[in-house]
Amino acid sequence: FGDAKTLRNDNSSRFGKLIDIYFEDMGKICGAKIQTYLLEKSRVVQQAKEERSYHVFYQLCAGADSSLKECIHLKPGQRHRYLNQSGCLKIDNVDDAGRFKAMLNAMDIMRSGKEDQDSAFAMLAAILWLGNITFTIFDNENHASVDDNEAVDYAAKLLKCSKEHLMQALSTRDIEQTRNIVQKLTYSQAADSRDALAKAIYAGLFDWLVDRINKSLEVGKRYASRSITILDIYGFESFEKNSFEQLCINYANEELQQFFNHHMFV
């Protein structure tokens, strides 16, 4: 859920984390707590050429059984715009279907029930269907309406909201003044609205997953006599062409590293 293929690394962690590992008197690990930072949400909706979104999307498409695929209306990866735009659906010598089975096993170990797992996969499918939603310009001011097709049908069903409400949310903006004003969105604004919703859902799903893992691990803290804290964040990177996002990542990493050093050591 937090790792992806980049140009430099087939399994790159795209978030930072602070891990407290608890040990009992005899030195055995008895629990842990994870805090996460700086999840790269933009990767959900857009990747550079030959990069991938988060592994879980491809593993789900490759490894889900027929009943799960039917339940969440999942199509092959190449049918979903959020996955096919970079031209890279597979990684050499990596079995996405096998990794999906390993992930299911890990979820079982972490006491994540089937209902929770199915809900998580439904949200992943909803994100993929949001990416397939398209818009049509209907006037000379570039205002856009949502195309009524299977993408919006399935996205609304998986998000458990009405199709009409979803279409309205993606194509208009409510402005609260002395009275409520509904403003129509332009084509680019509507596309940004769709992508923002997809990123927000994934970030919420990621935070929920970390919270469930922490609840599974926290029982051992009462037996702990000592602990080790590990900070794992992005490395400082500089490319020939650096985006504003890269500047923010580098700045946040340096600040986080200095904050950690000050409070842990100084």
| Helicity level | 40-55%
Low confidence ranges? none
Name of the CATH architecture: Up-down Bundle
Mean pLDDT: 92
Helix/sheet category: alpha+beta
Q: Largest sheet at a glance?
A: 3 strands, antiparallel
| Rg from alpha-carbon coordinates | 21 Å
In which order are the strands of the major sheet placed? 4-3-9
CATH superfamily: Myosin VI head, motor domain, U50 subdomain
CATH fold assignment:
Four Helix Bundle (Hemerythrin (Met), subunit A)
The H-and-E topology, N to C, reads as EEEEHHHHHEEHHEEHEH
CATH class: Mainly Alpha
**Strand proportion:** 15-25%
Number of domains: 1
Q: How far is the N terminus from the C terminus?
A: 34 Å
Count the E strands: 9
Total helical segments: 9
The shape, in one word, is globular
Description:
With about 270 residues, the protein is of the alpha+beta class. The protein has one domain: Up-down Bundle (Four Helix Bundle (Hemerythrin (Met), subunit A)). It is about 45% helix and about 15% strand. The protein is built from nine helices and nine strands. The protein has a three-stranded antiparallel sheet with strand order 4-3-9. The chain has a two-stranded antiparallel sheet with strand order 1-2. Strands 5-6 form a two-stranded antiparallel sheet. Helix 5 runs antiparallel to helix 6 and helix 5 packs antiparallel against helix 8 (about 185-215). It is globular. The chain starts with a strand and ends with a helix. The model has no long low-confidence stretch (mean pLDDT about 90).
